[in-house]
Every structure is written in structure tokens, then in C-alpha cells.
Amino acid sequence: MGDDGQRKIVDVAVGILMQPDGSFLMTTRPAGKVYAGYWEFPGGKIERGETLAEALRRELVEEIGITIADVHPWKEQVVDYPHALVRLHFCKVHEWSGVFDMREGQEMRWQRLPTDVSPILPGALPVLDWLAE
To answer: pTM (2 decimals)?
Structure first.
């Protein structure tokens, strides 16, 4: 008997910030977090009562210091990490304001396919395939 099926899903809003030239923003996981140093797309947990757009807007201000305009929900993926069962809500973002400020000490890099950063967080890998389609 395991606890299969009993794991609570954590909903996470993820922003794919796209520039007109097709490049997209990736950031590293901050020190002290699971998978610290892995490259991912910025975002975070959707809190109770928040919409997807509200959560993404809040997380991006908290993490990277920018205010995003419209949120375009794109794809969803459930990833079963050892520490959590996570449902990632990937959203494309084409407009934002403010100055990038890595408030958790993370790194940021604009990327194109194929990417040149590593390691990449397992949950972010499918996005690279989708962007290549």
C-alpha cells in the first residue's frame, strides 16, 4: 500500500517571456531550493483564490522585478517530482515593463533554440520541444 493517488497537486504558473526575435527568458533556481542552479522558466505557486494570471503577475514581480502585461495561457503539464506532484501552467508573455532584477540571486539568460544553458529543470524540457514545433 502506497500513497499513490493521495499526493496533492501543486498548481504552478510559469511565464515564457518571448521577445519579438523569438528569444525567451530562462532563469536559474535559487540556492536553497530543490534543484538549485537548474535552469527553468520563471513563475511560482498559484495561491488559494488567485487566478493563473494574478499568480504569474505576482510571482514575476517577486522573482524578477518586472510587471507583465497580458498573460496567454498556452500548455499544461503534470510533472511528478520526488518532492511534489506539480501541474505546470505555461503561459506566453510578450509585453512587460520595469527593469529585470533577480531578487532571489538567480541568473537570467535570453535563449534561442538550441539552448546553451544547463542543467535544465526536467519540467522545463517539454517547453523547448513545444517551442521548436
So the answer is: 0.93
